[in-house]
Write a structure and sequence with these properties.
By secondary structure, the chain is of the alpha+beta class. The protein has two domains: about 30 residues; about 150 residues, Endonuclease Chain A (Endonuclease, Chain A, 2-Layer Sandwich), CATH 3.30.870. About 45% of the residues lie in helices and about 20% in strands. It is built from seven helices and eight strands. An eight-stranded mixed β-sheet has the order 1-7-6-5-2-3-4-8, with helices on both faces. Helix 3 links the parallel strand 2 and strand 3. Helix 2 runs parallel beside helix 3.
């Protein structure tokens, strides 16, 4: 027991020392983007608290007037897809980026086919990792993010959260990121 405690203490101390010594190295690897916001409004919706994030998302899509950019890992919810189609019918400029592995899923493939049929351009990642974002940008002034995928499971069974950030500055910065992805032909290709 004494030997185990000694080994445990040695490993713990070594971990602490490495953490302290290497903090500057690891800290310099992170490149946080910091934005000072004036008066942002942030709404949040938890699925298991009956906040109904899917209704908030559909409401946001239905109120979009000009531009709707969506980068979503999984998109199989028929109500959300219907709202996106309706946005396109209202002449909203819609673009979607999704994950290539998820896009091969039977249910997502079906929904992406519906979106493509109405003329919505869709891109999938061509790199080896996941396109795991869950964001929607509406009219350069509203942004959604969180763990919430646009699926039936996300809205009914999973523990999920959807954040809606109402801030022009953050929406513009995130639109820039979306555009970088959209125009990166090495990492994202037409679906």
């Amino acid at each position: 027991m004494k030997l185990f405690f000694k080994k445990y203490l040695t490993i713990s101390l070594l971990s602490i020392i490495l953490s302290i010594c290497c903090y500057p190295i690891f800290n310099n690897l992170a490149h946080a983007q910091t934005v000072r916001l004036c008066n942002p409004v942030i709404e949040y919706y938890f699925t298991q608290s009956n906040h109904h994030p899917e209704l908030a998302l559909i409401n946001l899509i239905n109120n979009t007037k000009h531009n709707l950019d969506i980068a979503i890992y999984s998109l199989t919810d028929k109500d959300t897809v219907s709202a996106i189609v309706y946005a396109k019918e209202r002449k909203v400029n819609v673009r979607i980026i999704t994950d290539k592995i998820q896009s091969a899923n039977k249910y997502q493939k079906e929904q992406l086919g519906i979106l493509k049929d109405v003329g919505i351009p869709i891109k999938v990642d061509s790199h080896t990792d996941l396109m795991h974002l869950k964001i929607t940008i509406s009219d350069y002034k509203l942004v959604t993010t969180g763990s919430f995928n646009y699926t039936n499971n996300a809205k009914t069974y999973n523990d999920e959260v959807l954040l809606i950030i109402k801030d022009f500055k953050i929406a513009r910065l995130w639109t820039d990121e979306f555009n970088n992805m959209w125009h990166n032909d090495k990492k994202f290709i037409d679906y």
